[in-house]
């Protein structure tokens, strides 16, 4: 079992508990965020060339990679929007795809003719390649918004994603909603709220998740309702994971409500992370103390860690260079402090 110092892998944007692959090649295994959780803005900011367009042709170049037998291919794109950098209106992109390696977090992009992509690229040895062999491209709607001229690439990208909300393909509309969430702009919230109120059930759920990714805490009551039913399905599971990143103090009452009504270990752990590490509000202390008896081991640790962060109580503080076997005894000490002293202190209330 991993040391608790690294337990945040349970709360990351990937589902480690379901990642059971064996590495049998030289490339290291890694876990890649699913496309609906992609941080579009960060991907674009880290790539020198960002464009979107249609794949018009794919062919093999008859080479193999230096570290496997994966075949190299070239996709020819008809570029319909340039966001960063400069390329011709028709551009060739070197890539490789392999079904098995995709399971290990490599060579994930399977470009096919007549599909539309947002591409994050870099030039290497005079050739254009994906900035990352798994995170280097995202599917998008073929519908473009108006050309904003000299506006920022962020504004133009948002405009194009917003246009995709009108796509006739329901699956592509969902992708457009997810891309707006990945862009994380507050200016997208009005459109997302319209979908929440008027879209179908699936679109509404994904729009709630997308709005949450923009930092919109007004959707937390709706998040609470959905997570009270569980977090095994998407996008509820993604919503639960997103809770850990909330840092707006105004989110605290709703986070406590979610924590106390959650029907899922993951939801509780992410809410505890936000309350005990990000917000550190003394009003959360009684709820954190109650989760020292949580049925989930990681949740108990997060409650202990949060109490330490907020109260600075020695009874809730693990010793230097602690090991995993130290955690449960420390939780019991913290629980004893709470029953004898802590719960009688005047903790603030909403």
Strand and helix map with partners:
Elements: H1 40-46, E1 49-64, E2 71-84, E3 90-96, H2 99-103, E4 116-124, E5 127-130, E6 137-139, H3 153-163, H4 170-183, H5 189-198, H6 201-213, H7 220-227, H8 236-243, H9 252-261, H10 265-279, H11 285-290, H12 297-311, H13 327-340
Antiparallel strand pairs: 1-2, 1-4, 2-3, 4-5, 4-6
Briefly, what is this?
This protein has 350 residues and is α+β, with helices and mostly antiparallel strands. It has 13 helices and six strands. Strands 1, 2, 3, 4, 5 and 6 form a six-stranded antiparallel β-sheet that branches.
Task: Describe the model.
There is one protein chain. Strands 1, 2, 3, 4, 5 and 6 form a six-stranded antiparallel β-sheet that branches. The protein has 350 residues and is of the alpha+beta class. It folds into three domains: 1-139, OB fold (Dihydrolipoamide Acetyltransferase, E2P); 146-214, Leucine-rich Repeat Variant (Alpha Horseshoe); 219-350, Leucine-rich Repeat Variant, CATH 1.25.10. The two termini are 39 Å apart. Helix 5 (189-198) runs antiparallel to helix 6, helix 6 packs across helix 7 (220-227) and helix 6 runs parallel beside helix 8. It has helices at 40-46, 99-103, 153-163, 170-183, 189-198, 201-213, 220-227, 236-243, 252-261, 265-279, 285-290, 297-311, 327-340; strands at 49-64, 71-84, 90-96, 116-124, 127-130, 137-139.
């Amino acid at each position: 079992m991993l040391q608790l110092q690294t337990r945040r892998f349970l709360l990351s944007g990937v589902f480690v508990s379901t990642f059971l692959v064996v590495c049998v090649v030289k490339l290291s295994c890694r876990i890649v965020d699913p496309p609906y959780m992609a941080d579009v803005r960060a991907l674009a900011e880290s790539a020198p060339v960002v464009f979107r367009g249609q794949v018009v042709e794919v062919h093999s170049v008859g080479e193999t990679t230096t570290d496997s037998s994966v075949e190299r291919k070239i996709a020819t794109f008809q570029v319909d929007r340039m966001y960063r950098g400069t390329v011709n209106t028709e551009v060739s992109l070197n890539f490789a795809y392999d079904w098995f390696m995709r399971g290990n977090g490599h060579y994930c992009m399977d470009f096919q003719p007549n599909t539309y992509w947002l591409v994050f690229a870099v030039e290497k040895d005079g050739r254009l390649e994906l900035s990352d062999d798994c995170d280097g491209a995202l599917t998008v709607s073929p519908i473009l918004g108006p050309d904003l001229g000299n506006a920022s690439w962020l504004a133009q990208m948002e405009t194009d994603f917003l246009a995709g909300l009108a796509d006739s393909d329901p699956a592509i509309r969902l992708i457009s909603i997810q891309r707006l969430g990945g862009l994380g702009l507050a200016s997208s919230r009005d459109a997302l709220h319209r979908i929440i109120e008027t879209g179908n059930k699936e679109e509404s759920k994904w729009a709630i998740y997308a709005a949450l990714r923009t930092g919109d805490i007004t959707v937390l009551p709706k998040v609470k309702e959905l997570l009270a039913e569980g977090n095994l399905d998407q996008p509820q599971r993604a919503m639960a994971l997103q809770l850990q990143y909330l840092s707006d103090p105004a989110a605290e009452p709703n986070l406590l409500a979610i924590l106390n009504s959650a029907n899922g270990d993951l939801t509780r752990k992410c809410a505890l992370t936000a309350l005990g590490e990000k917000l550190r509000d003394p009003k959360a202390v009684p709820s954190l103390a109650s989760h020292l008896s949580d049925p989930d081991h990681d949740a108990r640790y997060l409650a202990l860690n949060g109490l330490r962060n907020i109260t600075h109580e020695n009874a809730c503080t693990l010793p230097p260079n602690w090991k995993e076997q130290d955690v449960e005894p420390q939780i019991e000490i913290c629980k004893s402090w709470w029953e004898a002293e802590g719960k009688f202190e005047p903790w603030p209330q909403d």
